[in-house]
Each structure stands twice: as structure tokens, then as C-alpha cells.
Amino acid sequence: MNDVLLSVVIPVYNASEYLEECLTAVCNQTYRNLEIILVDDGSKDNSLAICKKFAMNDSRIKILTHPNKGVSATRNDGIEAATGEYIFFCDADDYPEEDLADNYVNAIERWGKKKYSFIVCGMFFDNKLNKNVKDKKNILEIAHGYVEGENYLMSRSSAAVLSWLKLFNFVTNKCYDLKLIRENNIRFDESINIGEDLKFNLDYLDHSPGYIGMINLALYHYVKRRDDSLSISYHISDLEDTKVIYRRFIDWESKQDGVNDDNILVLKGIFVNDWVSRLTAYYEEYGGRSASKLVRRKLQTELRSREFQTLLKEIRKGQKISRFRYLCLRTGNFEVFYFFRGIYQIMKG
Fold first, then answer.
1. How far apart (Å, rounded) are the C-alpha atoms in residues 94 and 321?
2. Largest CA distance in the chain
3. Which of 110, 120, 193, 251 has its CA 20 to 30 A from that of 13?
4. Which CATH number does the domain housing residue 206 bear?
5. Quick check: keyword Glycosyltransferase in the entry (predicted)?
6. Residue numbers of the domain that contains 239
């Protein structure tokens, strides 16, 4: 299988502080037949110079540049330039284990194309922002009969479990069939700013009927380096985009063979959590405690909406939310919830 060419696409934007760590990890993969596509998204620091330095020492590297267009457009340019049989993505502020590509190729050889849709691996969640928060390793749990290091062909309904483990919604811990992407014109949606990874995965699965291949090893490091509330821009469409993608995800999950009520409740719990996260971003964007009456009214309208309250009651009945959090949100008073959320975060460290 050493003749299988894997393309790896890395979008780069103002990543000079950590880009070398990422590129070193990619270039040092134990599987050598890689096409490494670096797409600079109009960086204003010396990221492009770092890319060129690595390219001088590694002929597998291709560099593309364009004015700043965002991560989705940047990944799409990488897809257009890729020539491999399979493709995976890496973010410039993260890095893979050195045997990530090797494990992908071994799984491809073991299962064959027709049996699986895409291949998923476990992830490390490294917190370099707060040393008091322990790093995590997310894989299928031993308590549920899974063995670390084993490979599994999982039913498509297991997407809910993988989402709960934070392993489904990302694209950076997956290997895809590039031909299938090309033939079905699957691309990242450049019109949205949140949920684009999840949408890409659902678009892909709509055209690929196989199982979900799972490598039960943590092989990709997702690194938290800064406060998300400071590093991620707020967009007015984020809340509605979140609703659209989770409604679709729940509808998609409900149609899979072997799906059960708990699978759906898990996704509804994640939906509520992300809905509240978007409301929190909205609240902070428009002044927090100094927010206008109009903003506060919008927040109360969202929390008291029939859809939100129905979801809230369902996940409480299914024990997918704590009683305290449920009661805070049940009141429909966002400021009460936000106050106790702050206390919880302080206690958590």
C-alpha cells in the first residue's frame, strides 16, 4: 500500500507561532507517500516564509497563496489542488501524531473502499491556555467494550456517540476518498462561519453509504491556545446557522439503521449546548451586563421559544442535562444562567 498517495491540506493564516510544530509533525510522518498542500490565506506575519523554508527541504510540499478568504475557501483551494487518492486535513495550530497517515493507510488496506465511508481517529485535546485544565484523550471507551488500538467498522447511527465524544463534527481527524469528493462536488460551505466541518461531513455521508471506520487511537492533537471568545469572530448569522445544521444532523441520524432514542437525545443535548453557546457569544458581543433591552429581549425570546423549551424538557427527561443547568435555562432568563455559568467556570478553573 506504499503506492497510495495521501494528500494533506493545511490552511495557514497568521500561524507563525506554532506553524513549525505542525509542519515538522506532518513532514515526519512514518508513511512517506504524502502530498503536503499548504494554502496561505493572506497571512500578515511570516507564515508564508516558514512554509517556503520547509518546502526547500521537502519536495512533497506544494504552496498556494491567495488573499484572505477564510478557512472554508482555503480548504476548498486545497481540495482543487490535491492529486492523491485520499485526503485529510490538518489545522496549522494543531499537529498529528507521526503515525497518523500510516494508520489511515493500514485501515484502507484492511477494509477496502466499499465497506466504509470515511475513517475517523481519536483525538488529544491539549489545553495550553490554562495549565489547570488537564489534557484529554478522546477515544471509544473501554467501559463500553472497546479496546484502545483496535479498528472498528461502526454503524452510521454511531455518529451520535462519536459526536458526544467530540470525534464526529471535526474534519481534521478523518480521512476521505478524494475521488468521491470530486465526483459529487463536495466542498466546504463558504457562506457560513460556524458548523462548516459538520456540514461537510454530512454532505460527504449523503454520497457515501458505507460504515464509519474508527481507528481507536488518539492520533491528532487539537490544541487550545487562546480564549475562544477572544479568537473567534462573532457573526450575526451564527445562531441560525447552528440551528440549521443541528436540525439536519438530528434528521439525518433519525434515518440511520439501528438508531435508538438515546442517539437522538444525545444530539439534542449537543444542540442545546451549542444553541446556548451562540447566545452567550451574542450576549458578550453586545455588551454583556451592559446589553440593551433589545438584546436581552432577543435572548429571552430564544430561551422561551417552543423549540428550545421542548428540547430542554426532552434532554432533562433523558438525563442529558444537569438539574441545575436545566432550571437555569428553564426560567428563560439568560442573565440568571450567565451569572451561574461564570461561577461554574471559576470553580472549574
1. 30
2. 63
3. 120
4. 3.90.550.10
5. yes
6. 233-348
**Of 245, 274, 173, 157, whose CA–CA distance to 215 is shortest?**
173
Q: Tell me the three cell numbers of residue 35.
A: 502530498
The whole-number pLDDT of residue 129 equals: 72
Lookup result for grid cell 422561551: 304
1 occurs within a structural domain: no
Structure-derived torsion over alpha carbons of residues 336, 340, 341, 347, reported in degrees to the nearest 10: 170
The x, y and z cell numbers of residue 264, run together, are 437522538
* Buried b / exposed e along 314-343 (16+ C-beta atoms within 10 A): bbbeeebbeeebbebbbebbbeebbeeeee
| Residue 40 · residue 51 · CB < 8 Å | yes
- Mean pLDDT, consecutive 10-residue stretches, the chain (349 aa), reads 90 97 98 98 97 98 97 98 98 98 96 89 88 85 91 97 97 98 98 97 96 98 70 80 98 97 98 95 85 88 96 96 91 84 61
Q: How many structural domains is the chain composed of?
A: 2
Residues 151 and 63 both lie in one domain = yes
Residue type, 199: K
Contacts of 300 (CB under 8 A, 6+ apart): 332, 333, 334
Helix (H) or strand (E) holding 101: helix 100-111
Which residues pair with residue 177 across a beta bridge?
Answer: 86
CA distance 159 to 168: 6
pLDDT, residue 1, reads: 56
Please give the pLDDT value at position 346: 55
AA identity, residue 69: K
User: What is the predicted pLDDT for the residue at 230?
Assistant: 41
Residue-level pLDDT at 18: 95
Helical (H) or strand (E) element with 61: strand 61-65
Let me know the angle formed at the C-alpha of 111 by 106 and 114, rounded to the nearest 5 degrees. 135
CA dihedral 250, 254, 259, 261 (to 10 degrees): 70
Q: Which of 79, 90, 122 has its CA nearest to residue 103? A: 122
pLDDT of residue 267: 98
Q: Which three cell numbers stand for residue 205?
A: 455521508
Q: What is the 3-state composition of the chain as percent helix, strand, coil, each rounded to the nearest 5?
A: 50, 20, 35
| Residue 177 burial (10 A CB sphere; 0-12, 13-18, 19+) | buried
